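From the methods appendix. Each design record in this collection lists the tokenized structure first, followed by the designed amino acid sequence. Records were kept in a plain field format so they could be parsed without special tools. The example shown here is representative of the layout used throughout.

RECORD:
FOLD TOKENS (309 positions):
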């Protein structure tokens, strides 16, 4: 017992020391560059004085949207050509989408663009007066580093709760056939179809889980821009179909598209609590659900059993 207590205590002290060291360096960097970013922000406010709503739409809608298409544009090159091979070799579901069906892809892209410009954009515009009343997202002072991290943590937890339960509700037979089945047309997903959904689903499961956090916190535009951008990139990674080195593992959500009745959440916390990942935990995909820190595809180092393959 003493040995276990010593090991656990030493590990805890080491973790705390490492965390404090990392936080100190990040805070120092933030402080050193803080004056620069504050000056740039004040210059933007001066240039858009009286037209802050344009600044808000640019940061909350246009910047995340451009990042979404830049990232998925690169993935689409691999999806449609199978090249470069150094990326294609990391495909999770081997033999699927090689190459992707061009007709199906064009239809999906049209739906994604419609969701972005006919639903997401108006919702962001509609969000601005509420945020302005609550705390003004374009206020002069940028958030501190620690407050920014706290906001991101709260946004993530809120998204996990709202996405899990709204997503699971959409799998109820009443809603699945009419609404959610559209998204599951892709049993082997690709990045761009992360926003391929029925309009009701796009509002309930894509937009609201991401928007509620900033609204409740009265977030600054800088936090909103980073959060929306991260949310779009992460959901693209979750759907991309490639388990790439040094990027978050997409095995969890890829398995959901493969089996439909497992892995409903983003973080997996609520799936663990509700037991909706039990089948997933018995698969090789679960063993591969880690951050890949090398360049050997996990499908090669941890292959499916011959029966599964």
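DESIGN:
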């Amino acid at each position: 017992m003493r040995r276990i207590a010593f090991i656990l205590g030493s590990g805890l002290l080491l973790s705390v020391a490492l965390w404090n060291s990392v936080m100190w360096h990040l805070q120092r960097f933030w402080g050193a560059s803080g004056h620069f970013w504050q000056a740039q922000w004040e210059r933007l406010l001066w240039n858009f004085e009286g037209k802050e709503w344009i600044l808000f739409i640019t940061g909350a809608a246009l910047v995340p949207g451009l990042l979404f298409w830049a990232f998925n544009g690169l993935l689409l090159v691999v999806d449609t050509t199978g090249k470069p091979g150094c990326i294609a070799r990391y495909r999770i579901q081997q033999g699927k989408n090689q190459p992707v069906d061009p007709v199906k892809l064009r239809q999906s892209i049209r739906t994604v663009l419609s969701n972005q410009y006919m639903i997401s954009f108006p919702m962001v515009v509609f969000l601005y007066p509420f945020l302005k009343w609550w705390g003004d997202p374009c206020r002069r002072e940028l958030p501190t580093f620690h407050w920014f991290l706290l906001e991101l943590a709260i946004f993530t937890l809120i998204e996990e709760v709202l996405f899990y339960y709204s997503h699971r509700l959409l799998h109820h037979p009443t809603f699945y056939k009419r609404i959610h089945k559209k998204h599951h047309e892709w049993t082997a997903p690709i990045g761009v179809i992360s926003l391929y959904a029925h309009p009701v689903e796009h509002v309930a499961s894509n937009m609201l889980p991401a928007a509620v956090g900033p609204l409740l916190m009265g977030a600054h535009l800088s936090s909103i821009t980073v959060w929306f951008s991260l949310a779009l990139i992460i959901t693209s990674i979750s759907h991309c179909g490639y388990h790439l080195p040094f990027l978050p593992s997409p095995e969890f959500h890829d398995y959901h598209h493969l089996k439909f009745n497992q892995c409903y959440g983003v973080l997996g916390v609520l799936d663990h609590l509700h037991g909706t990942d039990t089948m997933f935990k018995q698969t090789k995909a679960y063993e591969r659900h880690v951050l890949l820190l090398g360049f050997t595809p996990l499908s090669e180092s941890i292959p499916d059993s011959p029966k599964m393959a």
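APPENDIX NOTE: The two ends are 45 Å apart (CA to CA).
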